[in-house]
Amino acid sequence: MKQALRVIFAGGGTGGHLFPGVAVAEALLQLRPGSSVSFVGSHNRIEARVVPKLGYPFDPLWISGLRRSFSFSTLLLPFKLAVSLLQSWRILRRRRPHVVVGTGGFASGPLLYVAAKTGRPTLIHEQNEYPGITTRKLAGDADEVHVTFESSSRLLTQAKRLVLSGNPVRLSLTRHDAGDARVHFGLHPSRRTLLVFGGSLGAAAINRAMRALVPRLVREEYQLIWQTGTRDHAQYASLGALYQGQVVVRPFIDEMDLAYSAADLVLCRAGATTLAELGVLGLPSILVPYPHAAADHQAHNATAVAEKGAAHVLRDEELEKLEEILFPLLDDDAVLGRMASASAALGRPRAAYEIAEAVIRLAEQKEGRS
Predict the structure, then answer these.
(1) How far apart are CA 326 and CA 151, in angstroms?
(2) Considering just the CA atoms, what is the radius of gyration of the chain in Å?
(3) How far is CA 298 from the centre of its chain?
(4) What is the dihedral of CA 303, 289, 272, 110, to 10 degrees?
(5) β-strand 6-10 against 58-61: which pairing, if any?
(6) Could you count the other beta carbons within 10 Å of the beta carbon of residue 345?
(7) φ, ψ for residue 191 (rounded to 5)?
């Protein structure tokens, strides 16, 4: 059996920075069974809750992000950074990783910095078209930087090695028969179907726009699967009851594989993980970037996809135009087909394995030099 490796994944703060690392970890364990995988991140963000539930060891850091408005936490930031650097050094001494992988966000910075400065192989994966500040600051220290969008290279000229890998998605993501998927949701197996979602909390602007369009969707015999988010579900649940058999309203959809498979068109935010999933499954979309994302990165993501012909983009303040874009799209087989092909061309279903293979290569190169 090939050598088992010790690899630390550092990153989090949001699911978009955490779950690509989980996907790469899963691929690595398939390629190198028996390897030791652990995660490092902030002590009070999503990674601290999710990683232990997934069964991976987790080492917390005291680090936190820089708030946009001044607060007492802002005064503590230099101290938190110093403590997190010391914590990172101790974690590296204890875990002795062959490679450290950074998946973005403030939570990845301290460990990546210490690992690079102490001569350990490091790899950064950047999910967004506009690289985050951690990636931009540390790209020159990492052995490899893997990006999701080719256009990201303009801001990462200092990288020693830049690789277009795409954004890893969970290995279980698969396309099911569309008719079977629609029947699963209690819908007609052959009617054109729209999927709408905006994250676990929902997207209030998208929800408001959709409420006005539901009667026309039903009248024209389209179907709707609508994840409102937990916060807004009570406002819209009655529409699912009123139009049962054509409209499904859920606070949250666990079986997203089936929801994607049922859809002919998707209306959603433009997070990097969502866009990667749409690409892997070859789905056309109308993208509504979250307006408060750091550095407006969702708008950059959406524009990059739209420029390839895979999506239309509407900002929150433009959602009054949704009706005039949505219904012509739902009516046009040829346009939907071209958008689906463009989306599939952007998909990188092997991204997790390609990055895992790069991790293995870095480890072997290090062993060869030592």
Answers:
(1) 28
(2) 21
(3) 11
(4) 110
(5) unpaired
(6) 12
(7) -85, 145
Q: How far apart are CA 208 and CA 21, in angstroms?
A: 34
Both tokens assigned to 77: 């930031």
DSSP secondary-structure letter at 315? -
Average pLDDT of the chain to the nearest whole number: 93
Task: List phi, psi (to 5°) of 63.
Answer: -60, 150
What's the pLDDT at 105? 83
Number of C-beta neighbours around residue 189 at 10 A: 14
CB 32 within 8 A of CB 362: no
Return the structure tokens found at 29. 């364990």
User: What tokens appear for 44 in the block?
Assistant: 């009070």
Contacts of 342 (CB under 8 A, 6+ apart): 284, 308, 309, 310
Nearest Cα residue to 287 out of 316, 262, 263: 316
Q: Half-sphere exposure (CA, 13 Å, Cβ side) for 365?
A: 13
Neighbours of 4 (CB within 10 A): 12
The tokens of 31 are what?
Answer: 């390629």
Instruction: Give start and end residues of each alpha helix (H) in 245-350.
Output: 256-262, 272-281, 297-307, 322-331, 333-346
pLDDT band at 64 (very low <50, low <70, confident <90, very high): low
- E-only strand ranges, the chain: 6-10, 36-42, 58-61, 99-102, 122-126, 144-147, 162-164, 193-196, 223-227, 247-250, 265-268, 285-287, 311-313
Scan for tokens 């690409």, then name that residue: 279
Q: List Cα–Cα distances, 278 to 50, 335, 344, in angstroms.
A: 23, 16, 8
pLDDT level of residue 1 (50, 70, 90 thresholds): very low
174: which 2 tokens? 């698969």
Alpha carbon separation from 306 to 154, 242, 269 (Å, rounded): 19, 35, 13
Q: What is residue 240's three-state secondary structure? A: helix
Polymer length of the chain: 370
Q: Report in angstroms the alpha-carbon separations of 3 from 32, 40, 98, 330.
A: 7, 23, 11, 52
Asked whether the predicted pLDDT for residue 313 surpasses 80, the reply is yes
Place of tokens 């309203």: 249
Query: How many whole angstroms separate alpha carbon 342 and alpha carbon 27?
Result: 26
